[in-house]
Amino acid sequence: MRVPASVLDRCGGSFHAADEKRQKASTQSFADTGLMALLCCHDCVLWSVNMTSAGEKQHYALVLVKHLFDHLPAKMTVGLLYDIGCQLEHSCQKWKILDDGILSRLKFGISVFHAYGHQWPCQLVYHPCKCVGFGLSDGEGCE
Question: Which of 8, 60, 70, 100 is most buried as measured by Cβ atoms within 10 A of its Cβ?
């Protein structure tokens, strides 16, 4: 990990999106509670999934990432900007969610707007303007 696990644990506790118990939508009235999309660097939708459970759970993002890698050449590297990218990487490392063939080709970052709310080390390590390869991408096309 590029940031100590203790910092990531503290960082994760400070965000509503990282709190899977927090519900913004109810499943009592609607089958779908939201929509999550995977966009390219030009903000064009590649794939989207209907969210069917309350709370922003990481498995929606992970299934999109896995689907993306199913369609990419085996040597291609991907930069992933996500609101809580530091937490997604932490989960992948801690629980071995994605195989090493994917993790070794995946560079995590935090969308610019969300980077300012993160703990200091996460801002420094995951901010796209401070990560090699992201250029001026801000990750805010889906917002």
Answer: 8
